[in-house]
Amino acid sequence: MSIKYFDHLPQLKTIRSEIDSRFASIFQNGQFVQGPEVREVESALATYLGVKNCISTSNGTDALLVSLMAADIKPGDEVITPGFSYIAAAESIKLLGAIPIYIDVSPQTYNIDTNFIAAAINHKTKAIVAVDLFGQSADYDEIYSIIGDNKIAVIEDAAQSFGSIYKNRKVGTLADIATTSFFPTKPLGCFGDGGAIFTNNNKLAEIIREITSHGQKKKYQHVRVGINGRLDTLQAAVLLAKLPHFDDDIDHRRQAARRYDELVAHYLSPWEVGPPQVADHNQSVYAQYTLQVNKRDEIQHYLAQRGIPTAIHYPTPIYSQWGESNVSHLPVTEKLCLSVISLPFYPSIPEDQQVIVIKTMADALSVLID
């Protein structure tokens, strides 16, 4: 039996005819950049979230970069962000000459630990980029409570949490600006790179749209410095075909996660292996199914030898990537980097494959740890 880490083909079978039809229309009219499908998907995504403005982007990283530019982040400004995350948020901060201030994450949810935010705020703090990790939201109400009257922008990086729920509100509506990614393995993925920015602030939306198109207010009238950050028409067409099925996909992700939870509790309980806790006020979309386990690297090798692919999200603290010397020890971040492993996971993953994955992991633990 071949086990895939991620498989897009089952879903493709259900939407292939619509994608073929939309692609044929684009090939016929030749509007590969900024075709009508782009505004159509922006409208559909805004409606899905119940937000005033959606601006599509070329990818999730550009969505973060543009959001920081729209928030007027400048060289020397400080931006608070978690130390345990994908590198895109910190990378975008540094590209603008700003300084990422890394704080540790919660040992329960793996999201930014709000207990450390207040101590990180000073007169240079201009923004917080709170990354929603592995499918669930950070605690935005608590973040805003800590900020108080300080003029600090909050950017919600919902690349892994788009479609999830926080306190009965949809993720993507919780902060001044929210971003997401449509990378193929994300909860809502296209067939290449793509992203989006969401805001209820119409003035910010105007600035964001200008930045994504070389700072243009209209053609050849450049009112600010921008980038080429536009979503291409073909990817917009893919998202339009997928969006009507998205809630069903989320349900299937949650069912698959529950099956893993049950299997982990049954087979792996002697070794205290488990996933991050989903906060009571959150409903996760399970962008990945990730466990924390001792002897992670040896276990990954054991699984690979038996045809079971896995991934490490993430093996190195962000601040270690660039050799930054101004970062204090972040113990939870560093522990997670040594112990997390993500298992094969997608909405239609067969249950028998999940059983094989967990039983093989139990075999590995019995050999390597007992």
Give an overview of the whole structure:
The chain has 370 residues and is α/β, with parallel strands linked by helices. The protein has 2 domains: 9-244, 3-Layer(aba) Sandwich (Aspartate Aminotransferase, domain 2); 246-368, Alpha-Beta Complex (Aspartate Aminotransferase, domain 1). 41% of the residues lie in helices and 15% in strands. The chain contains 13 helices and 14 strands. It has a 7-stranded mixed beta sheet with strand order 1-9-8-5-4-2-3, with helices on both faces. The longest helix is centred in the last third of the chain and has 22 residues, at 246-267. The chain is globular, with a radius of gyration of 21 Å.
Which fold name fills CATH's third level, the topology of the largest domain? Aspartate Aminotransferase, domain 2
Broad structural category:
alpha/beta
Helix content: 40-55%
Biggest β-sheet description: 7 strands, mixed
Number of helices: 13
Taken together, the total number of domains comes to: 2
What would you call the quaternary organization? single chain
Uncertain runs with pLDDT below 50, 5 residues or more?
A: none
Separation, N- and C-terminal Cα atoms = 28 Å
Instruction: Tell me what the CATH architecture of the largest domain is.
Output: 3-Layer(aba) Sandwich
- Radius of gyration (CA) equals 21 Å
Number of strands: 14
> What CATH first level of the largest domain would be assigned?
Alpha Beta
Mean pLDDT rating: 96
Order of helices and strands: HHEHEHEHEHEEEEEHEEHHEEHHHEH
What does the overall shape look like? globular
Beta-strand percent range: 15-25%
Q: Tell me the strand order in the biggest sheet.
A: 1-9-8-5-4-2-3
CATH superfamily of the largest domain: Type I PLP-dependent aspartate aminotransferase-like (Major domain)
